[in-house]
Each structure stands twice: as C-alpha cells, then as structure tokens.
Amino acid sequence: MINGVILKKLETLDEVLCELDSLGQVTVKQLQTYWVTRRAIERDLQIMVEIVIDVCQRIISLSGQSPPSSGAEAVTRCVALGALSSEEPYRRMVQFRNFIVHRYEQVDVEILVTLVNKRLDDFRRFRTEILKYAQH
Fold first, then answer.
1. Distance, CA of 136 to CA of 131 (rounded, Å)
2. What is the pLDDT of residue 1?
3. Chain centroid to CA 114
4. Angle of helix 90-102 relative to helix 120-134, nearest 10 degrees?
5. Average pLDDT per run of 10 along the chain, which is 136 residues long?
C-alpha cells in the first residue's frame, strides 16, 4: 500500500529528525538567547507534524475513503484503519501544529525544549508504525 509519495515524506521526516538530533539537549536559556535556533526548531517541528498529517491523509486516500476534514480526523481514521496503534501522541502533534501556525507569536520555549529533548521518539514511532502497516 505504500507508495513513493509516502516514502519520500518519511525520508524527509528522517532528515528533519537528524537536524534536531544534531542539536543535542537544548535548554530554555539557549532558546531564549538564540532566536535562530528557536525558529529552526519551531519550523522543523511544524514540518514533521505536517508530514504526519500528509501521510495519514495519503493512507486514507489510498484506502478509498473520502478526505478527512482535519489533521486530527486524519489521525483518528488512521487508527481505525490500523495504520497507527493509538491517537496519542499524534493528536497532540496536530494540536501543537495548529498552535504554532495560528499563535506563532506566543510559542513557549519550554514546550519546544520538551518536544526536542523528550518527544522526538514519537515521530520515530510514527514512521515505524506506518512502514509496518504498509508491509501487510
């Protein structure tokens, strides 16, 4: 069921994860001091969540279903299809993406620090689950 578009998106996900991994552990002070690093993290996280949403939408399309009306619905429907094991943490990713896109002037650096230091494995899990689903 997997196609070249999904593989390319997962490849991009890997590239962005490598970028964030290269930063090592980040601190609140670091992100308050170095706006370039903060903005790069914000953008990389946004890109990764967009990939999650895009891949979910592609899987739904390939299954012959109508398009989801939101990123959260795309996640829910991928869980129903068996492509993802649970909605969490993916729904939280979508919520973060919506926040960062619509409330961009108020992104809390503590949230960014937590995501980079503790939640990147959620994206790796997404990749693993999608590839496993595609192989069945």
1. 9
2. 58
3. 14
4. 120
5. 87 98 97 96 97 97 95 97 95 92 85 96 97 88
Q: How far apart, in whole angstroms, are the C-alpha atoms of residue 84 and residue 87?
A: 7
Domain around 120: 4-134
The total domain count for the chain is: 1
pTM for the whole structure: 0.94
Which residue in 87, 107, 96 sits closest to 38, CA to CA?
A: 107
Q: What is the CATH number of the domain that holds 74?
A: 1.20.120.580
pLDDT of residue 106: 78
What local confidence, expressed as pLDDT, does residue 59 receive?
96
Q: Which residues of 28-63 are buried (b: 16+ CB within 10 A; e: fewer)?
A: eeebeeeeeebeebbebbbbbbbbbbbbbbbbbeee
* 48: nearest Cα among 129, 126, 128, 135: 126
The single-letter code of the amino acid at 102 is: H
Q: What tokens were used for 109?
A: 């650096």
